[in-house]
Amino acid sequence: MAIDRKPHSQTTGAALRVRRVQAADIPQVIALDTRVTKLAKPDYWKDVYRRYGKRRLHERFFLIAKNRLDRADSRVLGFIIGEVRTWEFGSTPCGWVFALSVDPDMRLHGIGKALLEAISGEFRKAGVRKMRTMVERGAQLPLLFFRSEGMMAGPYIQLEKDLD
Amino acid sequence: MRLQISTRLAIFAVLELTERESRQLSVADIGKKYNVSNHHLAKVMHIMGRAGLVRAVRGAGGGYRFAANPRRTTLLDVVQLFEDISSVEKDTEAADATPEGKALQAILNEIDAIAWATLGSITIATMHKLLNRAGAGRRRSIPYLGGS
């Protein structure tokens, strides 16, 4: 799968290429996540790649965005991961997005939007008509982004408790 | 959740002013659409002016313009000018100090926190997108709200 998309913003002259992740991309994914979250978790990302980059690809999507026009630019500009989940929490099949990250220097250039549109298209092809995600209440940046893309509060309430 | 009339008027006024770039409207223009008194609306606009959200334009044909960035201004930025959001986790009565009062307050705080987070996650630009999707009134075209 290779999905070419023009960037939404006019501030970047380059177009984006959104495609499935490859093993060679993982070090950059790890580096980007470490930069954004300030927490290095290479084992986690290698495991995610094994589960979402290589298996059950008809319902699992680990996509990355790259510069389409400049092939010499090998940077991973952002990534998104999601999967179709069925009957969890009593829900009919829906697409869950559980990770989205964009290079901090490349934000507001339409990369997040292109990634979300790409995975939305994959979810549609997989036969689902609803997409969900979960965002920490205080994480205003991703909240603002998902809201601007039309996502609203859903019918579920997340609950938790401390296990003493 | 119920917002005060002033708060709702402030949001409506901001949405009117940001429908097009550099749109300028008088208090009477906005008041007429929402059927509210100019006196009440003028007080609302004055508060938003002090906060830097709108700017008064003097002279004949004067009025107000939106003075902030619609992509960076959230509903919470407007709401907090008129609503007391500092009541979260604040004991206001003796009964609140009882175990029952604290348990109830914990639930109310949870509701408030969700409400404030929701209001803080929706920009004025996103509100226009919602209006467009809902097909409310005429199509809004706001070049300076584009891109994300």
What does this structure look like?
The complex is a heterodimer of chains A (164) and B (148). In chain A, 29% of the residues lie in helices and 23% in strands. Chain A has helices at residues 26-37, 42-53, 111-125, 140-148, and strands at 2-5, 16-20, 60-67, 78-85, 94-102, 131-133. Residues 5-13 of chain A have low confidence and may be disordered. With 164 residues, chain A is of the alpha+beta class. Chain A is globular. Chain A starts with a strand and ends in a 16-residue tail after the last helix. Chain A contains four helices and six strands. In chain A, α3 links the parallel β5 and β6 (131-133). Chain B is mainly α and 148 residues long. In chain B, 49% of the residues lie in helices and 7% in strands. Chain B has six helices and three strands, in the order αβααββααα. In chain B, strands 1-3-2 form a three-stranded antiparallel beta sheet. In chain B, β2 (54-57) and β3 form a beta hairpin. In chain B, α1 (5-17) packs across α3 (38-50) and α2 crosses α3 (38-50). The radius of gyration of chain B is 18 Å and the shape is elongated. The model of chain B is unreliable at 142-148 (pLDDT under 50). The interface between A and B is medium-sized, with 19 and 16 residues.
Assign an overall shape of chain A.
globular
Give the averaged pLDDT of chain B, no decimals: 86
Q: From the helix content, strand content and strand pairing of chain A, which structural class follows?
A: alpha+beta
The description of the largest β-sheet of chain A is:
6 strands, mixed
Oligomerization state of this entry? heterodimer
Shape of chain B: elongated
- The overall average pLDDT of chain A, rounded, is 89
- Given the structure, what is the number of helices of chain A? 4
- How helical, in percent, are the residues of chain B? 40-55%
Strand content of chain B: 5-15%
User: What is the CA-CA span between the terminal residues of chain B?
Assistant: 30 Å
Distance between the termini of chain A: 46 Å
Low-confidence stretches of chain A: 5-13
Count the DSSP helices of chain B.
6
Total E-strand runs of chain B? 3
The ordered H/E elements of chain A are EEHHEEEHEH
The arrangement of helices and strands of chain B along the chain is HEHHEEHHH
What structural class do helix, strand and pairing data of chain B support?
mainly alpha
For the secondary structure, the number of strands of chain A is: 6
Strand content of chain A: 15-25%
In which order are the strands of the major sheet of chain A placed?
1-2-3-4-5-6
